[in-house]
Amino acid sequence: LLLDDGAGGRVVIVTMDLIGVTADLRAHVETEAGRRFGLKPHELLLNASHTHSGPQVAPDRMLLERIFRRAAKPEDVAAVNAYQTRLREDLVGVVGECLRAPSPARVDFSTARAGFAMNRRRPEPNGTFSNNPYPAGPVDHDVPVLKVSGADGKVRALLFGYACHNTTLGGSKVSGDYAGHAQRELESTYAGATALFLMGCAGDQNPYPRGATVPGKTPEDLAQQHGRALAHAVHAALAARPRAVNGPLRAALGQAKLGYEPLPAKELATYTPEQQTPEVVERAKTLTAMLARGERPPPFACPVQVVRFGGDLTLVALGGEAVVDYALRLKRELAGKAAVWVAGYTNDVFGYLASRRVLEEGGYEGISANTRILNHPGRFSYDAEDAVVAKAHELLRGLDR
d(Cα 183, Cα 198) in Å, to the nearest integer? Predict the structure, then answer.
């Protein structure tokens, strides 16, 4: 989706039915789009739906082994490499395609709600947090919708979002999961329109029910059910007096530096060959030696992007699997005349971006997923949330100037 205010402000939003965007993938598309089409880095936004039923996008044998917890076969690596090569060029191609054929359009914004997302961090009596439905946990049920209409009044594009993992199917088939079904329904309703799903801050949110939890219902039945619910929320938003979105259009891209609290030596000692892949065990040894020398891991650069549509709409897009606290806080702090839309899973899905609350609680999203499955040397420091939010405010102040 290309949005251009005709006065030098533009942004290209690319949404993908994939589990994530790697830093390398973002860098390639950014470089090639700049070289071939003159697109500036801040004018490009890449967002993944985080479907767990799509192809692996990182051609890294060690990553494959961390995720699948077994030795990667040569054919596995070859397949991922071939897909990555094709994907890189496909993404550059769609950017060029939309830049070649702009035409006048009207843009409107509205919101509705969908209720199938539920917090999945359930506190247990022993003080831990399990991955199970937790109805009392925080959620973000907003469904923001950007409608793009042509000069003839027909809908040309619908950009819509929701904060919920695309895990209804659990990887049982190749699918866009509930978000893919929602896009399909919207495109069948609005002939000729393109439906684009922008994933929200869904790090600690799951679709319920999911998997095989409903007697007589398959996971595919549930994915279709949630897809219809989300599409119906988009229909409701379009009927709820959408507000016109005007220019000027401005965008900015930056990085929040997130410090690490490295894993203690006692914890690193539990990374044994019986429980982890050889690569993870070797990394634990390297970190142990670093701690013994009194060294700390360098900070991590988390991408933060903001897009401002005049005084009508502010979009904040964060890297990583941001938990819902980020959306709730940013919408609260940025509340004003302009509507606020907060997305996660943008530009680099490096693992979980936990809030201070989740970091203090620990558990899967707080530390274990990043350290035991992904290549992080420890949990992020408690000020990570403040650093990300501060960067969003800084970028928006820069747009105001």
Answer: 11
- What would the 3-class secondary structure string for the chain be? CEEECCCCCEEEEEEECCCCCCHHHHHHHHHHHHHHHCCCHHHEEEEECCECCCCCCCCCHHHHHHHHCCCCCHHHHHHHHHHHHHHHHHHHHHHHHHHHCCCCEEEEEEEEECCCEEECEEECCCCCEEECCCCCCCCCCEEEEEEEEECCCCEEEEEEEECCCECCCCCCCCCCHHHHHHHHHHHHHCCCCEEEEEECCCCCEEECCCCCCCCCCCHHHHHHHHHHHHHHHHHHHHCCCCEECCCCEEEEEEEEEECEEECCHHHHCCCCCCCCCHHHHHHHHHHHHHHHCCCCCCCEEEEEEEEEECCCEEEEEECCEECHHHHHHHHHHCCCCCEEEEECCECCCCCEECCHHHHHHCCHHHHHHHHHHCCCCEEECCCHHHHHHHHHHHHHHHHHC
321: β partners? 352
Half-sphere exposure of 372 (CA within 13 A, CB side): 16
Bridge partners of residue 113, in order along the sequence: 142
In angstroms, what CA-CA distances link 373 with 65, 97, 101, 170, 223? 9, 37, 43, 17, 26
Q: Residue 278 contacts by C-beta under 8 Å, 6 or more apart in sequence?
A: 65
Q: The tokens of 285 are what?
A: 């040894």
- The predicted pLDDT at position 101 comes to 83
Question: Listing from the earlier edge strand, what are the strands of the sheet with 339-343?
Answer: 249-258, 300-309, 313-318, 339-343
pLDDT reading at 268 higher than 80: yes
- What is the structure's pLDDT at 77? 83
Q: Rounded to an integer, what distance in angstroms lies between the CA atom of residue 27 and that of residue 395?
A: 20
Rounded Cα gap, residues 128 and 365, in angstroms = 12
Q: Give the list of residues 6+ apart from residue 124 with CB closer than 8 angstroms, or none.
A: 130
pLDDT at 171 over 80: no
Q: How far from the centroid of its chain's Cα atoms is residue 31's Cα?
A: 21
Instruction: Return the amino acid letter for 251.
Output: A
- Alpha carbons 377 and 47: distance in angstroms, whole number: 25
Convert the pLDDT of each residue in 89-116 to its tens digit. Answer: 999 999 999 999 899 999 999 999 999 9
CA distances from 396 to 84, 176, 247 (A): 33, 32, 15
